[in-house]
Amino acid sequence: MGIKVDIKKKLGDFTLDIKFESDAARIGILGASGCGKSLTLKSIAGIERPDSGSIQIGEKVLFDSESRINLKPQKRNVGYMFQNYALFPTMTVEQNIAAGLDRGFKEKDERVADMIERFSLRGLEKHLPGQLSGGQQQRVALARIMAYSPDIIMLDEPYSALDQHLKERLQHEMLGMLQDYRGQVIMVSHNRDEIYRFGEDLLIMEEGKISASGRTTELFDDPGSISVARMTGCKNIVEAEKVEERRIRIPKWDVEISLSRSVPEDIHAIGYRAHFFEPVWGEREENCIPFNVSGFDELPFERRYYIHPAGDDPGADLICWFIQDNERRRIDEGAKPDYLKLREDAIMMLKKD
Questions:
Q1: 4-8, 114-118, 165-169: which has the highest mean pLDDT?
Q2: What are the tens digits of pLDDT across the range 238-262?
Q3: Other CB atoms within 10 A of residue 36 CB
Q4: Where do the H-state alpha helices sit in 186-320?
């Protein structure tokens, strides 16, 4: 079962205009606040009505403006988890789980009991949402959705209001709870780490449109364009030009890079992630840059250097070089490296947006 979405909707000065299709079990949508992520989910769920287009899950058409099809939300069999979980505050845990079920009393009670057991909520059946922790509330919200066996589950920034420690733990729990679910799950977030851990397929949204789509790992490894590289968290993006078939020049770093692969004609910049620089002591190797340290930040398990190439224009953007704890100890025990080496496999060739 796959999803097909091709819709347009105008809200004030904002226009949502997206088209995507995916059979992946886990789909991530990454984008800054206000880019249209939540509006996309609400359109699929039937909370918002697109101006035109179509939405289809498997063989089931949820919306088609030409055929005048617009199923009501309760007829779409779509599970939607809101940012704040949207639990009914005056209902108990078991009442919240039962709220979406349209079954006989006996069958409903059996289904609720099954969800209580499955989501480790035993002993909390009579508790109100206000008496639950954030993780417990999340489990109740997901249990309520899973109780009616939706064709697709959509998670709208499910960790946005949590602190970092709780966020990481609940991400792990969420993936575990969804492990046996055979339908598709879409999660939207502005956090690239959450999306990377979650999604098989990735959609990157900017200003109401999809700017890139594909397999998540492939888009992070090879974003293709400057804007997508930024969205995937690349800290170092610098203009580059092709000088030979397998050679590029980076003017601001005053270096030429030799490659074993061909350089595309439309290259405009390279992207290089901050953790991939390799320190070199002694004689300069190929694809190395001499550098001076401008400053650094000390974190518990990482040090973040901000550097500029030796002889570079002082007004140029600083280069970010991040090192883990083991490398930090090595540098602290010896001298500063003489050069930083760019790994060829980590160089991302980027076109202009």
A1: 4-8
A2: 999 999 999 999 998 889 999 999 9
A3: 24
A4: 192-198, 216-221, 226-231
